[in-house]
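<instruction>
Derive structure tokens from the sequence
<data>
Labelled lines for chain and fold
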Amino acid sequence: MSTNVAAVTWNDYNCNGGFLGAEVDILQKSDLEHDAGAHANAPFFTNSLFAPQPVQSFGTMTTQYLVTNLSDCEFICSTPASVEVDAFTGTPETSISIHTTLVDTTSPTAVDPTYFSTPPAEQNGTATTIQTDDDRFLNAVWESGHIWTADNTDCTPSLDTTARSCLDYVGVTASSTGVVNATINQINNVGVNGSYLYYPAVSLDSAGDVITVFDESSSSMNPTIVSSSIPSGGSALSAFQTVHPSSGFYSPSFACQSINSTNACRWVTTRARHRTQPIRRTCGSCRRPRMDRHRPPAHPRVSAGEVTSRT
């Protein structure tokens, strides 16, 4: 979301669960807000990016950024692990131009190469684990010349002997006009001995401090919402603060047992990894298969007359 446009992204799959590519739709923000005008949009498709993430802008700017984690390319092609930053300028009612920059990361994120996912999280009181998905960026924000985003990664925390789901934070210097700098601040492999950290989200305050929340659980800890921060220019997270501990463990149900129950729909999912039976889909509802089975091929850029550079 920027001052004059909004971006929507999603992955496309065929009815057999095969990855087709990612779509980006740039919407005229004024038309969207007022349900008026030409309802203009500018759609783009690429079969070479997986899960591009729109950047939410705080403050006035006319550039819409997208960020994509290309770390997995480290295992299938010679390109160094990097973050792709796409800067969209213009509006659908006039014209859209794209400038793509690849910023090399200081260390790649990782997933288990056998099933392209980070380790499932243990929790207290049950053998059922929580699917932590993969290392796609989960949200992204911009303020005062900096983009920050976050994702899961596979790591073995210090003093630990087991691979667990950990956190990765990436900051990229980017102007309000679409100029991306090679400067990157990455805090990778944030982990806790014996625990699983997963599903981070980030925001920024006016001082440039990163505020983050994420989940933590272990064999002795119920799923818990945790917060932390990264001071402007910092290279480490602050001490973790508990926001809200769950009173019980997650159980992968497929439907609410009773809408009148106190705990009805409390832990409900339709895509738990360790389920006992598959979810049946018709072809008309096949756009959300299991994401962990698929990764895209080595990538050219979004093909819409863009200028591509590498820093």
User: Anything to note?
Assistant: Residues 24 and 44 are 5 Å apart (CA to CA). The first helix runs from residue 29 to 34. DSSP finds one helix and 19 strands in the chain. The longest strand covers residues 164-174.
